[in-house]
Amino acid sequence: xxxxxxxxxxxxxxxxxxxxxxxxxxxxxxxxxxxxxxxxxxxxxxxxxxxxxxxxxxxxxxxxxxxxxxxxxxxxxxxxxxxxxxxxxxxxxxxxxxxxxxxxxxxx
Amino acid sequence: xxxxxxxxxxxxxxxxxxxxxxxxxxxxxxxxxxxxxxxxxxxxxxxxxxxxxxxxxxxxxxxxxxxxxxxxxxxxxxxxxxxxxxxxxxxxxxxxxxxxxxxxxxxxxxxxxxxxxxxxxxxxxxxxxxxxxxxxxxxxxxxxxxxxxxxxxxxxxxxxxxxxxxxxxxxxxxxxxxxxxxxxxxxxxxxxxxxxxxxxxxxxxxxxxxxxxxxxxxxxxxxxxxxxxxxxxxxxxxxxxxxxxxxxxxxxxxxxxxxxxxxxxxxxx
Lengths: 108, 269
What we know:
The structure holds 2 protein chains of 2 kinds. By secondary structure, chain A is mainly beta.
């Protein structure tokens, strides 16, 4: 494990360099629904998704297609990075309220 | 209520399966019960604390706090599992031989037991904090305590039952091959957790994906199917892995095997 630490450090230090040219999208959660439910992003670039949970209850933003899961506490925001994505559709949902919290990300 | 039970079940399952593997790995070791129960208790206490500070953790480190926390928890578990495997590689054969000779439990050093208790605590901590948040959300949404308690209890019972089944299954392996089999299982479990850590680090924008999707075997075995979920937890099966996840998986297997090798050479002398 000792040889691993410098590697992690090097990676952490190099973060700002490739996080620089970013595209950002905000997805609001209200009444256990996403708004917008259809999110368009450009293909082939990294995208910063800001999950703005305006409900009082926590939600887990989850996507099997994007392999992402992030718990966002009530009345707070969370950041999830995705991509660069190939063109296509990627479903996401709120794990704690799957009956209503459903959405789709479209990369094109 | 069923929805609540299902979510609790899914969260409990991962921790329960890891506890089952740890129970298998400490087969025939006296005093292991105390360590495992201690690990579970510490994990639950930690889960409640993490849930309370979920907002602060998430907001911390420029919005990357939760990912870094999860990745750190996973990598710590990987280190503990790796250390256990390296230790067992040196002492496993003696322990198995002693068990057969004495016909009862043997004593094992406190250090390997501590490592495994930490693995249990970390698994319970990670899955438990999400369960606590989910149940808290249910209450805040106005669900009755009835739903909460019944749903939670059902999910917990089902998760523990599956863990127990896995443990019984492990015990069915003949003693001569038992420690080798468990050691391989722990190796792949560690690799799977490392791949999970890699996923969190890409989500935080800290590691590149290397490739968004190296292969797609969801047509063969979907990761959200029953078997897919079990294999995902136990050996890190992933139906659509990112390149960096595969890299972490392979590197972890290679690193642990390399560290096990000198120990093997020493025992042979």
